[in-house]
Write a structure and sequence with these properties.
single chain, 181 residues, mainly alpha, 0% strand, elongated
Length: 181
């Protein structure tokens, strides 16, 4: 009798486990799909968060800009001797994180497209910006009276503006693709 009770108990445990495994299979597939989607979404969100530190705050049309944005804008319009050295936002770490986000499993077509555009813009425009940063860092302005800096400034400002626009496009695409919370 004890053996029969034990066998019945063991059988109920085994049947219960089988039922759990069968019930868990569809959830596991859905969970795996969500985790895959989350991997891409999280990679994009991480990169977008890091790039936000570079961006100048935008305001709605007709509203005054914040003090930091206003200072930064004045700075970009003429104080080339203090050119932003934020090129580090688009160095090797950016490239690595961008490649990781693009290679991550999942689907975020708008974010992927915006990131590819940002990478292309950075590849094309960063050298002009970096040239001014390097010129200022080298201190050669003392030798030429700043002539080279004045020559490089328009290209650096154009590069900064293009990179900023592409960065905003990317951040906006990532935020639009983010699941509601």
């Amino acid at each position: 009798m004890r053996a029969a009770v034990r066998a019945a108990g063991l059988l109920s445990v085994v049947l219960g486990l089988l039922a759990c495994v069968q019930d868990a299979s569809p959830r596991t597939d859905a969970t795996t799909a969500r985790a895959t989607q989350d991997a891409k979404t999280l990679a994009h969100a991480d990169l977008a968060h890091r790039l936000r530190r570079f961006l100048i705050a935008r305001g709605a049309p007709g509203t005054p800009r914040g003090q930091i944005a206003a200072d930064d804008e004045r700075f970009r319009l003429g104080a080339f001797w203090r050119a932003r050295t934020d090129t580090h936002h688009f160095g090797d770490d950016f490239q690595h994180r961008a490649d990781t986000a693009l290679a991550a499993p999942g689907a975020a077509p708008q974010a992927d497209a915006a990131l590819r555009q940002l990478q292309a813009t950075v590849d094309a425009r960063l050298p002009a910006w970096q040239a001014l940063v390097d010129y200022n860092a080298a201190g050669t302005m003392r030798d030429d009276g700043g002539d080279e800096g004045r020559r490089l400034l328009p290209w650096a400002i154009a590069a900064l503006d293009a990179i900023e626009v592409a960065t905003w496009d990317y951040v906006d695409a990532v935020e639009a693709a983010a699941p509601p919370q």
